[in-house]
Amino acid sequence: MSSGYNNLKLLTSSLISNTILAAAATGARQLTARHVSVFAIAILAGCVIRYAFLDHRTADYVTWLKPWWDEASTEGFSALAHGFTNYAPPYEYLLVVATMFGNVSALTGVKAISLVFEIANAVIAARIVANCGLCKTLQLAAAAALWLAPSVIYNGAGWGQADAIWTTFVLLGALASLRSRPSAGLAFGAAFAIKAQGIFAGPAALGLALRNARSFAALAIGFPLAVAALWVLPLLLGRDLSDVLMVYVAQSGTYHYLSANAANPWFLVPNDYYSIGVKVGLALALACGVAIAALARRACTPRQVLAVLALSCFAMPYVLPKMHDRYFYSGELLLILMAFADRRWLHLAVLAQVSAIYAYFVFDGIADDLIYVAVLLNTYVLGRAVTLVLSDLGDARMAGKFGGKHISAAST
Questions:
Q1: Runs of H (alpha helix) within 237-273
Q2: How confident is the model at residue 3 (pLDDT cuts 50, 70, 90)?
Q3: Residue 213 CB partners (closer than 8 Å, separation 6+)
Q4: Whole-prediction pTM value?
Q5: Where are the alpha helices (DSSP H) in 102-148?
Q6: CA distance 25 to 27
Q7: What is the rounded end-to-end Cα distance, in angstroms, of the chain?
Q8: Could you tell me if 171 and 128 are in contact, meaning their C-beta atoms sit under 8 angstroms apart?
Q9: What is the rounded distance in angstroms from the CA atom of residue 190 to the CA atom of residue 366?
Q10: What range does the domain containing 41 cover?
């Protein structure tokens, strides 16, 4: 790995830390030309860094993404009739469409798909913090923070991974939830239809829906409707129903690791305990999901809604086995947005980014031992996030058990 590539990663980490710190610390309410100039520089910096990462290839690209691109380029939409990836149909649609844009190389095309959704996520981020009552200056800062986040750049521009895509719909679900819109069910369903990891928002989404009959009906109808709409095309082209419905089951059997470099406690458990570990992990995830749903049902303010969604998307890949390094992606982005909504979350957003890059370093063979630090950081981030959510929801007794104290909204 070249020293220039390593320096870019360090530069990116510095950029996001400084961006979040500056944004959260500012007391400015009036949008000025200086703020717009800083935002423009941040956007330009993100473009330059992404371009510098453009030629980076990973083993996943060579083994999976490049062959998928080649088949999509050769067969077009007819490839959907038999499926040519181990991903859900929506990603296959995007690959086929991307191959239609002239002589774009496979590497550029795959990364361009992620780029489109990274831009969308930055735009949605601004709308989310706007619905938390923040000024236009902080709305621009939130968009810049997501655009410059190290995990976002590393995941998309560096690896060409698809996590920005499903996260777009998690963020849309969060925005709809903040507005109490029934479209939240459709958004969360679309996130799951694109990648199974979209279910990480499920516990919070369910708890929020249980607050009233209208919201529950919207989720109960919207979620499966979105999945059906996004998965129907291959069926119309002749693909077997069982093949489509079992795509996530098939995915789960691709690797047999308790942790694929995910910064969670399962990384510390020997793979000799794989079978029992999977069972225990699923039980823990179920219990954790029920607890988060119960907390989400009590959320009333926009900040509380955003907080339980951030907790859900960070906690689920922490407790589940068989997770990959990049599965904290949506939780990391929601933590950044919580840093704008509530300054007490600022250090958690920064630490989660540091942890993400440490975990990514392992796959790229840069610094294997940093994964242990990443596990510790994520453990702290989750524990403190639980404390903050409990304190915001008024459960001072339970917050105290996690080492925190009750802080009123007026003090933040």
A1: 241-245, 247-252
A2: very low
A3: none
A4: 0.91
A5: 106-131, 136-148
A6: 6
A7: 44
A8: yes
A9: 35
A10: 3-411
